[in-house]
Amino acid sequence: MSSMGNDIVASARLWAARAAVSELGVQARHLRRLWAQPGTLLGVDGWPATRSERLYRRWNYWAQAHLIDCMVDAQERYPNPVRVSHLSRIVRSVRLRNGRRWASDDYGDAAFMGLALLRASALVPVDDAVKEIVHRLRYAWTDHAGGGIWSRVGEDFKGVRANGPATILLTRLGDRVDLQQARAMAEWMEDHLLDETVGLLWVGLHVNMDGEVREMVKEAYTYTQGVFLGVCLELAAAGDPVWAERAERTVIAISEHLANNGVLRGHGGGDGGLYAGILARYLALAALRLPALTGFSVTAIAASEIAQQLVMTSAAAAWRNRAVARGGPLYGPDWTLPARVPRSPRHTIPERELSAQLGGWMILEAAALLERSR
């Protein structure tokens, strides 16, 4: 093997090891049985945890979806039967904690859960989970503001957060009717939310009940660009070449407007701790898939290289700025800044939140995926 080949193998092992210890950190600090019941496991929202968090009075359905996704990433990186057992317990516990339902009244959260469970279904039983979630999403479509699905039951908002993951889920299922609806949602986002001057999508629209748009929320978050990038990749793979061009446009716009010195921008605590990690997941997929989707065009190869560089630079920054805590590395929501270790449950910094730790784990799994795919 050449010297360059040895370097690649060593790098692959390095990122895999870093992803592995990130997994151990989340496992040690955040995974607990649900209500002390045997055969259960769920992600605690904070560490150190408050009493309310330990009892799962407060829990984050959306974060559990990304916990499942991260565990599937880890299983693809290094298969382990113990992890599969844990994954099965988490899937079972999500339904139990959610009132024995798979879906959520938040269509965006439900779509992300559907995506995670669809991936997990190759490893553990998920019963009718995806079927239940997809049924809810199919009937969330209305013609208000030209189409798309609502963000949540009873809300007046339509945006990328729900339509993006729902489009990916429906496309991956491959049913003709679902694919037709997926294309309609994707075109609605392109037509109604694209800022043509920068190539990014705005968050979404507040819509009156008569269908009139009351307000456009003109913010561009990393995770919404990530899921739209995922939409582009899925529809391009389904045979629509224009979506490959839109994927290239999105990657370039992300690099120009949502990264600081090549590091994906952070969005603070709460759900924001996951935003950059979600984008990293889809950037890694773009780096791997874009060239082949376009017949290895020059522009697609260039966009693929940009996507890869964003992932690797961000992973290096997250690792460099990690803190040392019980069980493994601890990450902050902004990978350009040193992470802080929370002193107690009352120390309300983003680093104690499950979301920020999943975001850090996610970027390292994305880096490990790219390195082992070379």
From TrEMBL:
One of its GO terms (biological process) is carbohydrate metabolic process. InterPro entries: 6-hairpin_glycosidase_sf, Glyco_hydro_76, MUG_Protein. Gene3D superfamilies: 1.50.10.20. It holds the Pfam family Glyco_hydro_76. Signal peptide: none annotated. It comes from the Bacteria. PANTHER family: MEIOTICALLY UP-REGULATED GENE 191 PROTEIN. This is Putative alpha-1,6-mannanase (GH76 family).
